[in-house]
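Forum: Protein Structure Q&A
Topic: Joint prediction for protein chains with partners

I've read a bunch of threads here and the consensus seems to be that you should model interacting components together rather than docking separate models afterwards. I'd like to see that in practice. Below is the full input, 592 residues plus whatever partners are listed. Could one of the regulars post the assembled result?
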Amino acid sequence: MNSVAVSARHISASIGKRLILQGIDLQLPEGRWTSIVGPNGAGKSTLLKVLAGLLPASGEVALLGRPLHGIPSRERARLLAWLGQNEGSAEDLTSYDVAMLGRLPHQRWLAPPTAADHAAVERALRTTQAWEWRDRPLAQLSGGERQRVLLARALAVQARVLLMDEPLANLDPPHQTDWLHTVRALVAGGGTVVSVLHEVSIALQADDMVIMAGGRVVWHGACADAATHAALEQVFDHRIRVRELDGAWIALPSL
Amino acid sequence: MTQASHHRRALWCALWLLLASGVLLLAGVGVGSTGFESVLRMWDEPVARQIVWDIRLPRTLGAWLAGALLGLAGAVAQGLFRNPLADPYLLGSASGAALGGAVAMALFGSSPLATQWFTRVGVTGMAFIGAAGAVGLTLVLAKGVQHTLRLLLAGVIVGVVLGALRDLVELASPDILQSMQSFTLGTTSFVGWMACALMAGAWALCSVLAWVLARALDGLTLGEATAASLGLPLAPMRVGLVAALALATGTAVAQTGLIAFVGLAAPHLVRSIVRVTHERHIVLSSLMGAVLLLAADILARWVLAPQELPVGVLTAALGGTYLLWLMHRRTSQGSVL
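Posted by a regular:
Agreed with the consensus. Here's the joint model:
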């Protein structure tokens, strides 16, 4: 049994007066890839932000066995990397400079980047195949290319836990596959990945799946489990069907 | 272009700007109603020396320093508000300074053309207090510096309200209208050594502060949440950056009035030459602002010599035209600014 990477107890969060998350209890194991799915407005992104310590919430979040709020912010930033959706776009910085921002938690104040920082940035940019345009500003890149640079920024942190919100946004199918390989390699190396995904077929390739609806977790189980598939079909009102094809589970629209 | 060549280009840009500053400083000392002759004769004639030493030199240096302050404030404002159209006057400092100046002129009741020392110091001091007070008011209305949008909105509201108050002061004492006009148009003609010293001090302080906090601006380009996830202590850093912004703008406006567009155009010009992280961008924008304002000031003194234009009119005309052209060029390349 793996130890727990991220755990949440009795999490409730509201934005304005609206309650978004209601009493969530969750334990995400270390060294595994967990995907979070659910209909729009289920609270997936909010949960991810709470788990990353970016949104105040009632309840307790623990990271690698320590209370999240007790970890100094720089140390937390080294342990946990977060990739958001529709965040600022850093138009004026080059791809290399953007990826280097992922090294901020490792750098001392005002110290120039070390050789290790440069190596980490190069590795991250090569992993997402963004190395070629490392010197181009983000303003000159397409949506998918930008996303690969932002992904490289998150990878460059080299954190043990990586939380990603809609990481496949704007990515074309070959690069979605690349992303899948990247995540598998991270997990094989002992890392923990948690991703909010709308692409249910990709989400089904994860180790575990958390299904959310109406601000609650309605199911948490292995992706290969038939009960997970049933819960998935249920939460999407049986508008999708989960089927096996070439040894992988995929979601098809119910026609 | 590789990473190293970006940095080399930034260095070259800085060197060119310094060189331009040097040339312009010399030109600035030579331009005036009595021409370059005063410089040649300054060793023998006390009057010529006085013209060069007490009028032209501080004024030229003052234009450079005010431009440097505005360029720095512009780069900080654009980074802090993550908006390429952000301007150093956004937090209400401009209208606060104008109100302060108007109140001082109404109280002391004399035209700045009289250049009484007391009036000058009074107007400058009140303008600075006005600028600082307006920024403070904006911060109170926005309940701190956490919400960028609320901060922007509060700045606009404070600007409008203080502008209305200034109108009231002007209506009550119409004799200050002409002096107020030269203040709102922006002019470097009243800058003396004292003003230069003040601006140099503020520039040194703000540069160090902004340079130390430049990484927060880099982090913020990725959005608030990502910056926070990188472990940056955003709240204290924002306070520091807003302080630098307010001090730089307040000092410049108090000494030279409302000089338009330098703070907006300088960072854009730098970006069109080289795209680097804020650590370098802030320094380059500051130098660019200095060169722009000094060049505009010399032009303002020279175009209609022996008459002179308020430099703010020139910067607004030239800066506005340049930004329009830049927008047109960028839009045709597919991106807006």
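Chain A has a mean pLDDT of 91.
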